Amino acid sequence: MRKLIIILRILLGVILLIGSVPFFLKLTPEAELVGSMKLFNDGINAAIYLMPFIKAVELICGIAFLLNRYVLLASIAILPITINIFLVHCFIAPEGLLLALIMLFCNLFLIYSNKEHYKNLLTAKLSSSI
C-alpha cells in the first residue's frame, strides 16, 4: 500500500509539473482550440489572473508531491483544480478524459489514504481545548 501511495504521489506530481512548467516558460505553442473549448478557454483568459494562478498552484503542488513535503495541504489545494479538469474533459473536451481521470484518481486516493489527518477539518464543532 505504501508503494502505491508513493507511485501515485510521484505520478500526480509529474503530471502537474508537465502541465505547469511549459505554461510559464512558454516551451510549447498554444494548441488551436475550437468550439466550446475555445469559448471556455477564452473565458478563462479574459480573467487575466486566473490561468497564471491555476498554473502556479499546479506548480507548487507538483513540487510538493515530488519532494514529499506538505502533501496533505497540496492534496486539498489541488483538489478543486483536478475536479475542474475532470469536468471540463467530461463535458467539453473528451479527448483528454483519461489523463483527467488519472489525475482525479491519484488526488482522491492520496486524500483517502491520509483520511485520518483530515478528520479535524470535517468536524462541525471545535473542541474546548482550542
Treating each run of at least 4 consecutive H or I residues as one helix, how many helices? 6
Please give the largest β-sheet. none
Category by helix and strand content? mainly alpha
Percent helix range: over 70%
The span between the termini is 34 Å
How many domains? The number is: 1
The string of secondary-structure elements, in order, is HHHHHH
The counted number of beta strands is 0
Strand content: under 5%
Q: Which word captures the global form?
A: globular
What would the average pLDDT be, to the nearest integer? 93
Task: Report the C-alpha radius of gyration, rounded.
Answer: 16 Å
Low-confidence stretches: none
Question: What attributes characterize this protein structure?
Answer:
about 130 residues, 6 helices, mainly alpha, about 0% strand
Notes on the structure:
The chain is mostly helical and 130 residues long. The chain has one domain. Helices cover 74% and strands 0% of the residues. The protein has six helices and no strands. The longest helix has 24 residues. It is globular, with a radius of gyration of 16 Å. The model has no long low-confidence stretch (mean pLDDT 93).
Summarize the structure.
The chain is built from 6 helices and no strands.
Write the layout of secondary structure elements.
Layout: H1 2-25, H2 35-46, H3 50-67, H4 71-91, H5 97-113, H6 115-118
Protein name: DoxX family membrane protein
Transmembrane segments: 6-25, 46-66, 72-92, 97-113
Organism: Niabella digestorum
